[in-house]
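Students often ask why we bother encoding 3D structure as a string. The short answer is that it lets us treat folding as translation between two languages. Here is a chain of 188 residues written in the first language.
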Amino acid sequence: MTPDNLHDFFLASAGVAGALIGLLFVAISVSQERLAERGETQIDRVRASAALTAFTNSLAVALFALIPGNKIGPTALVVAILGLLFITASLLSVVRVDGLRWRDVRDVVFLLGLVTIFVIQFITAIAVIQRPHDSGPVRTIAVLVVVCFLVGIARAWELIGGPSIGLKQEIGVRVRRHDRDADSARDK
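And here it is in the second language, the structure alphabet:
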């Protein structure tokens, strides 16, 4: 059973998930050519599907949490299973289309992160089903809804080719610049 103090959270989450899914559909429609199943595009297809899976997970959990009764546990369980099936299919499709290459490791690690989320959700959903009046597992599911939003946003950002600025990248640029400056100083 969803605690009363989480009602507004799930209400807002359902709205956010719906809006993010709509924006993802727009991004996918603009990127249709990149997402056709051939060669290099498979990772983009997996990214789009991962974002949609994360957002749909959040939407389903949030909407069913708003229905009076004990609906959040079974819903979280079903969408966790569907999420795990999606990840399995995604990994198989990446290997089938591209073969597993070093450049895909980051995406595979991201998918393994989704596995972690869905396994935690699966276990927590069982706890909700077994102890419907315990609010702790429902709160954990609420946190997982937020995590799915963040994962979906990150995947969508990569899908549209958003800029990536990270600490590793910035340190690498500084080290290369320092080495280049040192080489220039030695050559003079």
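Translate back mentally: The mean pLDDT is 84. Keep this in mind for the problem set.
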